[in-house]
Amino acid sequence: MVRLSGPNAPAIASTISGPLPPPRYAALRTFTDVEGGAIDHGLVLYFPAPHSYTGEDVVEFHGHGGPAVVERLLRSIVVLGARPAEPGEFTQRAYLNGRIDLSQAEAVAALIDAESEAAAAAALRSLEGAFGRAVDELAGQIADLRAEIEAGLDFPDEEDVPMLAGDERCARIGALRTAVDEVRRKAQAGVQVGRTGDLAIVGAPNMGKSSLLNAL
User: What's the confidence (pLDDT) of residue 192?
Assistant: First the structure.
């Protein structure tokens, strides 16, 4: 699959494959080079901005995947004004355009690098926004509590601005600290899940090191 992103993506794609299909519908097209020579037959999908992964106009070419075919397709696209993306650039554009938050952007890299099912599952949960939503909710609660405390201090004599009682204030602060600690604990657990290390099996000769390794 070859993906184009940016304001010129539809025009470049139309030159390669002809008229684009309706948004998010796959259409069978012949991919051609700038001279009109056929490159491949495959599917074309169009995702107009802002409803795409990057938040920009995006077009995808799904071909047969042979190295020579893909290389020729890429050359034709570059001749028409595109350039190769930098590593992680599509995710960077999605972040800059507000399609994902920073925790989700990091989760993309973690999902790609995951070496175990547990690490992949943890990264996928973050990619779906679970971690970001938890942080945003806590930030909102902290901001609300701060506003109530400051209002009580600034307008102590106003009847419609009640001052939080000390016990209630301490209870809410304590609950927020507990919630923040829980989020931090889960974040650290997620980091540990994604880590891998080297394990050495050490012992004297003929003590069963190979048997242990084979059993593992």
Answer: 66
